[in-house]
Design brief:
alpha+beta
C-alpha cells in the first residue's frame, strides 16, 4: 500500500481546515503490525464506517489517505479507533 498520510482534525482548539495549526504525518503501511494493517484495510473497504463511533463533542478525528492506482483514497475515523503508531506519527506545525 505504500505510505499513509495522516491528518488530525477537529477538537476543542479547532485544528484542521481554517486553522493556522496543522497536525500531519506519514507512516509506512508495511511498518504497521498485522492487526493494525487489517484495521486500516477495513477502514478503506468500508469507507470508515467500520470505525464509526457515537459523536463526541470536541473530539479529534483522523483523516487517513493512501495512493492507489486509481488515485487517492481518504477515510476519516475517530481518534479512539486510530492505532498508536499512526497517532504518534502526527506532528503539529504552525502555518
Amino acid at each position: 500500500m505504500g505510505m499513509l498520510t495522516i491528518e488530525r482534525v477537529g477538537g476543542f482548539a479547532g485544528f484542521g481546515p481554517g486553522s493556522r495549526i496543522r497536525s500531519r504525518g506519514t507512516h509506512p503501511f508495511d511498518k504497521l503490525s498485522p492487526t493494525d494493517q487489517a484495521k486500516v484495510e477495513e477502514w478503506f473497504r468500508t469507507r470508515g464506517q467500520s470505525a464509526a463511533a457515537p459523536p463526541v463533542a470536541d473530539a479529534f478525528r483522523y483523516r487517513i489517505t493512501r495512493d492507489t492506482p486509481n488515485g487517492q483514497e481518504t477515510v476519516e475515523v475517530p481518534e479512539s479507533a486510530v492505532p498508536p503508531a499512526l497517532r504518534d506519527s502526527v506532528k503539529d506545525e504552525l502555518q
